[in-house]
Amino acid sequence: MKNLFDLSGKTAVAIGGNGVLGSSMAIGLADHGAKVAIVGRNLEKAEEVVKEIEAAGGQAKAFTADVSSKESLLKAADEIEKWSGGWDILLNAPGTNSATPFFELDMEEYDKIMDINLKGIVMTCQIFAKRMIEQERKGSIINISSVSSTTPLSRVFTYSVSKAGLNSVTQFLAREFAENGIRVNAIIPGFFPAEQNRKILDKDRIDSIMRHTPMQRFGESEELQGATVFLASDKASSFVTGALLRVDGGFGAMTI
Fold first, then answer.
1. Do residues 39 and 17 make contact, with C-beta atoms less than 8 angstroms apart?
2. Can you tell me the distance from the alpha carbon of 247 to that of 147, in angstroms, rounded to the nearest whole number?
3. Are the C-beta atoms of 184 and 240 separated by less than 8 Å?
4. DSSP readout, 51-105?
5. Is 110 annotated in the active site?
6. Which of 52, 132, 170, 207 has CA 20 to 30 A from 184's CA?
7. From first to last of its 256 residues, what are the pLDDT tens digits of the chain?
8. Cα–Cα distance measured from residue 207 to residue 133, given in angstroms and rounded to the nearest whole number
9. Does residue 142 contact residue 187 with C-beta atoms inside 8 Å?
């Protein structure tokens, strides 16, 4: 069973790997043997994740990139390829949010959220998956979606729209890349308190979340590692593509 989840000899690129959730998932990949490129806008935070991985005996290196800029992503891809030779796993975990009411939302804010949460993932897949295909590397792309992608949540209109689009991108690319041996799946996390959602988690909001979460608690970032490693492994999930895997404490199963 241990070999089923062994990622030794694999290289993973973790976009947004310096964030609360992205870093935990990147650490999970490293713990199972993958060499990991930690990519984020904040190099200092990325380097902190690298130190944690190296302290546990893993291999990692920090890189900077702005997912809303194709030029920035291309530069990062060149640097990572020079460092690693290529990659087998792409984890897309960047994200931003806003609690702006719908009628107060301006298009500048809308575009910023969409650029990071959706357009950025599309560009990342274009750049990094293309090189996987050119090198004839079979592998796995893992996108991080949200429970708001399937059941739109109040107060996060643009975020919900962006994540619903990401689900569609995931399933489209799963069909597109299957012939190249690249699997594309998404993880749908429930509520994991992180920087981007703490600003909307007041008491009333938390009470509402708990009423709709059968497990009656928030998730811990480490609880995303199992799903990440499963989808990254070409042994454990060899016939899994186009899947939207929930890790949400039962939120998606709750009605009344």
1. yes
2. 9
3. no
4. HHHHHTT--EEEEE--TT-HHHHHHHHHHHHHHHS--SEEEE---------GGG-
5. no
6. 52
7. 668 999 999 999 999 999 999 999 999 999 999 999 999 999 999 999 999 999 999 999 999 999 999 999 999 999 999 999 999 999 999 989 888 889 999 999 999 999 999 999 999 999 999 999 999 999 999 999 999 999 888 888 999 999 999 999 999 999 999 999 999 999 999 999 765 555 567 788 888 889 999 999 999 999 999 999 999 999 999 999 999 999 999 999 987 7
8. 46
9. yes
Residue entry with tokens 């944690």 = 52
Specify the pTM.
Answer: 0.94
Nearest to 52 by CA among 24, 92, 77: 24
The closest alpha carbon to 185, from 89, 114, 86, belongs to 89
Give the bridge partners for 140, in sequence order.
89, 183
Among 5, 157, 159, 191, the one annotated catalytic: 159
d(CA 189, CA 186): 9
Joined tokens for residue 145 = 């979606």
Token pair listed for 20: 């609360």
CB 39 within 8 A of CB 15: yes
| Angle at CA of residue 212, ends 254 and 204, nearest 5° | 160
Are 134 and 87 in contact, with CB atoms under 8 Å apart?
Answer: no
